[in-house]
Amino acid sequence: MLETLRAKLNIRHELGRALIGEFVGTAILVLVINLVVAQSVLTRGKMNEMININVGVGLGIVFGIAICARLSGGHINPAVSLMFLSFKQISFVKFVLYTLAQTAGAFIGAAIAFVVYYDAINHFDGGNRYVIGPKATAGIFASYPADHLGSINGLFDQIIATGLFCLFICHVTDRRNHYPKWVQPIVIGTVFVMVGTAFGLNCGYPCNPARDFGPRLFTLIAGYGGDVFSFKRWSWFWVPIVGPFIGALLRLDLPNDDWIPSSGRRRDHEIRSRGHTRNAASQQGLIERRLRTKQFSLAATAP
């Protein structure tokens, strides 16, 4: 689909194609997440219990990554892009542009989900948009903490959950583990299902600054008002942004030298260069041994 879009729009610039990829991939991710959660909220839990939500979110990640992996690497998450920046796999400028594209995609994904279930949302809340309470629907689009959760505990929740997620992304994308390219989105999506089953209680495991901020910004202009940011006296909205960034940088303290990225051209070039050097040395030694053997044979047969 993206290749067809590129051909029609005649996008020849590699970065431009990558940004469109991140935009579309993140839009698909957020669209699927919002639709899955909407079914749970609007039916008051009669559809899509928690495990079904986890599976739906995981599938959103699978296909969000798959659709843009060839163009941009399939980050669809500013925290993941920051991790790759820390590995020097992308530049700071590309990280900023990726983040903007991902946030814009998340905004559009939320808007499409809102249109799809517009009548159902109106039926549920009577046309009045609520952030909290029995008729609240803001949680369809962005994360809000459970009543028991404070900001500090929520921050640690997001650091640990995102760090675990990024650790497994490193594992899956490490060339030495030999995951085929077509398998990687499936495994990464499955990892996030695991994260959801483990971390869903506190705040719904956003683990993605764009996935949370883009839809939150959409709800601000869609009638939910400033409460989407001022909830709990402004002490929450920054948590799903800052926490994942910190978790991505920590990624459970994985050393840089222990990871060989599947897209790491510079590192791969170094490995290939060392391999070529060793092969050349071996071939040179073999030639020298053959020459010595030939010279010995000639000397032995000389009159």
Topology at a glance:
Layout: H1 2-9, H2 14-42, H3 50-72, H4 78-86, H5 92-116, H6 118-125, H7 151-173, H8 184-203, H9 209-224, H10 227-234, H11 239-250, H12 265-301
Features of the shown structure:
mainly alpha, Glycerol uptake facilitator protein, 2 domains, 0% strand, elongated, disordered C terminus
Describe this structure in words.
The structure is a single chain. The chain folds into 2 domains: 254 residues, Glycerol uptake facilitator protein (Up-down Bundle), CATH 1.20.1080; 40 residues. With 303 residues, it is mostly helical. The protein is built from 12 helices and no strands. Helix 4 runs antiparallel to helix 5 and helix 7 packs antiparallel against helix 8.
Structure at a glance:
With 303 residues, the chain is mainly α. It is 72% helix and 0% strand. The termini are far apart.
Q: Low-confidence parts lasting 5 or more residues at pLDDT below 50? A: 264-273, 294-303
CATH H-level homologous superfamily name of the largest domain: Glycerol uptake facilitator protein
Q: What is the number of strand segments?
A: 0
Write down the overall mean pLDDT.
85
Global structural class? mainly alpha
Report the sheet-strand fraction: under 5%
CATH fold category name of the largest domain: Glycerol uptake facilitator protein
Span between termini: 78 Å
Keywords: Membrane, Transmembrane, Transmembrane helix, Transport
Family: Belongs to the MIP/aquaporin (TC 1.A.8) family.
Subcellular location: Membrane
Membrane topology: Multi-pass membrane protein
